[in-house]
Write a structure and sequence with these properties.
Blueprint: H1 7-55, H2 69-77, H3 87-93, H4 96-101, H5 114-118
Length: 139
């Protein structure tokens, strides 16, 4: 969160705090601020536990970090365990370093038939050059 704050900024904030609040009131102010942060954290933790208990036993292992879009996409596409889209085989077959260096691309070890998997539940297969049917209600 504060990864882009350097040492000079921290020193400036400390000097400003000493000048504004004075060395007498600064320890009390730091204690009050830390107490407030602890209360906010405990409130957030209790709210998370309340949500988990209200959702039921099937959501006991629910992690709120999964709601972050980056984490959600990473978990769904490159997830743990099952790989319904076959992306693990595709990812393992591509070597980005060799592709960036201009080396010839090796033949994939595991072939993924995307055309077959894409039309598995989509109805009849289309002939070469045939246009898919248009549904004006779907657009």
């Amino acid at each position: 969160m504060f990864g882009d704050i350097g040492g000079l900024e921290v020193v400036t904030v400390i000097v400003m705090a000493i000048v504004i609040f004075g060395p007498d009131k600064l320890p009390k102010l730091i204690q009050d601020t830390m107490g407030f942060i602890r209360k906010v954290r405990s409130f957030a933790d209790s709210a998370k536990e309340d949500i988990r208990s209200e959702l039921g036993p099937e959501f006991q292992n629910f992690d709120f970090e999964d709601l972050n879009p980056k984490t959600f996409v990473r978990k769904q596409l490159l997830g743990d365990g099952d790989d319904p889209l076959g992306l693990k085989d595709l990812k393992d077959s591509v070597d980005l370093k060799s592709a960036l260096n201009g080396d010839p691309v090796p033949t994939p070890t595991a072939s993924v038939d995307f055309a077959k998997s894409a039309t598995a539940g989509a109805g009849p297969a289309l002939a070469v050059g045939e246009r898919p049917p248009f549904d004006p209600d779907a657009t």
